[in-house]
Amino acid sequence: MGFEKEPSICRLSEKLSDSTLPLGDRFDALFQLRTNGTVAAMQCIAGRLLDPKEDSALLKHELAYCIGQMQLKEAIPSLSQVLENENENTMVRHEAGEALGAIGSAEAIDVLSKFVSHSEAAISETCQLAIERINNVSENSNQNKPTGGFGSIDPAVFEESLTPSGDTCEDIDPLQERLLNESIPLYERYVAMFKLRNISSKLSTRALCEGFGSKSALFRHEIAYVLGQMQNKEAVSSLAEVLANQSEDPMVRHECAEALGSIASKHSGVTDTLKRFLSDPERVVRESCEVALEISNH
Hints:
Oligomer: single chain
Distance between the termini: 34 Å
Shape: globular
Radius of gyration: 18 Å
Order of helices and strands: HHHHHHHHHHHHHHHH
């Protein structure tokens, strides 16, 4: 691969690639590689993402996510290959597109532009959002960073100073109105979503839960993601309800399971909900519950 890997990276790469290990252990190796932050570590993750023998869409989508969070331009070719693969799982392709947006390089716009009208809404919407994000960070590179103290590179950016500092209906209601307004661009609704997350209160949590009524599965899955970041117990009932809905998109249900796993580390009783879906018909849902339970026990 052009880089000599340190022994610790090699050990983590072996662990990540070992399909006999519990998924929770493989996720742990992935997170350590992501934290390493080097091109060599990223290439180990990308190698697994591109390995045709890897059949867990859950793991592959997390591989793509972590690559994006590392924000290395060297990852663009690998992520582009995943996005362009029509045989790849939609959830994985979506995550590759979002990761390209997270890197924030204009080099990715050409490949993203190919899929802005894709027949799969999750892919087309992701690519539209990614292009919008890249254009925004090109104008203001200071926005290509985490906000709100959550540490994640998000699919929509804004100046952190523009997030309301209060927690009143006057602060929340305008953001909730934008969040739920299906007539405005999706990117603007995402900005409202992350501003509500950054307020991180009971009121903003309740406002975000209303987003589960959105028409877009991609939007609903992102709602679940930010609720997991916030770890507010006000979200538990809504997340559990969506997880239990067998007619909901598996991408949304899986994200609800992961969010509940994040909340379980702080609030007892959530693990029982996750255990009920360990035998769910959807593989990505049952694997998400498995990983969520393992991580919540650490």
